[in-house]
Design a protein that fits this description.
- The complex is a heterodimer.
- Chain A is mainly β.
- Chain A has strands at residues 4-7, 10-13, 19-25, 31-38, 42-51, 54-57, 65-66, 76-78, 87-94, 101-103, 107-111.
- In chain A, a hairpin with a 3-residue loop joins strand 4 (31-38) and strand 5.
- Chain B is an all-beta fold.
- In chain B, 0% of the residues lie in helices and 56% in strands.
- In chain B, strands 2, 4, 5, 9, 10 and 11 form a six-stranded mixed beta sheet that branches. Chain B has a five-stranded antiparallel beta sheet with strand order 1-3-8-7-6, with no helix packed on it.
- In chain B, a hairpin with a 6-residue loop joins strand 4 and strand 5.
- The chains are: A mainly beta, B mainly beta.
């Protein structure tokens, strides 16, 4: 089954404690992306990757890092989380034409 | 959402038709998407319009006018399961950055 998976699905952490949210897709997609979703603001793009070792900033990259060492994986790293990073995070992947993005199930993060 | 406007909330009756509008800035336009998102779930793709006109997919249709920076999603024969948020999105600066509107929360009542 074609899918995008994220782990963990739910996470409560404290300010400053480094964390990583994993994202994996099994569709051999080149393009992957991370979004955060906040009430009233909609989905905002954090980082995207056009292929292995090729990443670039989206609209809200501050406080986040990503890496793309393999085609299927695109982890999101919060080196020093802060409460304003409390949000719902979605990973997505798409084919080269980018006509359809497939979203993962989401990771709900609470930073205390 | 940045440069994309859509109503915050709408209500409709089961079996009726509803139109959800979306306006956007026309500069650098490369296509417009509609996604459906049920509460607590991931967005799912509904449509992608590049050319002007209406595209129909079953009960859902999407319209685009590039010159007016305007799109709408038309939902016919509404069902209770259509209660969800509907997200309008467009590419920004090429095909790598996708900008979403804040979404329209649709409530379908019996």
């Amino acid at each position: 089954e074609a899918q995008v998976t994220q782990n963990p699905r739910y996470l409560i952490t404290v300010t400053g404690k480094k964390l990583t949210v994993t994202c994996s897709q099994n569709m051999n997609h080149e393009y992957m992306s991370w979004y955060r979703q906040d009430p009233g603001l909609g989905l905002r793009q954090i980082y995207y990757s056009m292929n292995v070792e090729v990443t670039d900033k989206g609209d809200v990259p501050e406080g986040y890092k990503v890496s793309r060492k393999e085609k299927r994986n695109f982890p999101l790293i919060l080196e020093s989380p802060s409460p304003n990073q409390t949000s719902l995070y979605f990973c997505a992947s798409s084919s080269p034409q980018k006509e359809t993005q497939y979203f993962g199930p989401g990771t709900r993060l609470l930073v205390l | 959402g940045q440069n994309i406007d859509q109503p915050t909330e709408m209500t409709a009756t089961e079996g009726a038709i509803v139109q959800i509008n979306c306006t956007y800035q026309t500069s650098g336009f490369n296509g417009l998407f509609w996604y459906q998102q049920h509460a607590g779930e991931a967005p799912t793709f509904l449509s992608y319009n590049v050319l002007d006109g209406l595209e129909e997919k079953g009960r859902f249709s999407s319209f685009l006018s590039r010159s007016k920076g305007y799109s709408y999603l038309l939902l016919k024969e509404l069902q209770m399961k259509d209660s969800a948020s509907y997200l309008c999105a467009r590419f920004s600066g090429g095909y790598n950055k996708l900008i979403f509107g804040a979404g329209t929360r649709l409530a379908v009542h019996p």
